[in-house]
Model the fold of this input.
Amino acid sequence: MEDIRISTEKSELDTEMIFNFLHNQARWCKGIPRSVVEKAIEHSLCFGAYIGTRQVGFARMVTDYATFGNLVDVFVVEELRGKGISRVILDAVSNHPELQGLRRITLATSDKQELYAKFGYTELARPEIFMEKFDPMVYS
Done:
């Protein structure tokens, strides 16, 4: 596996690749409009994973940079999964200087609990205090 480079420079992001993945492949937001993806990128701290100049992974943190963050849209292109790229991305997220000292970081995952546990994520300590407003059909 070639060296993986992580960048938070939005100018380097392959927004077409990100949109195509989220719109066509991501089970959590299939059908998401391009304008929504572009707005989400604009208002988030984004992490691109690159081999050379090719973007091969992505994650974004929705945060106020002071107390709270929500990690979303973490993915690696299908043909390169299982090669440790997601761990490199999560390590960069965990060590990013602007995300240190946040009181709470959340994420939702249906199948990668073991991976996220390696970076300190656990089940909700007090699930009874959390609520959500969820519209799974918003992009339909």
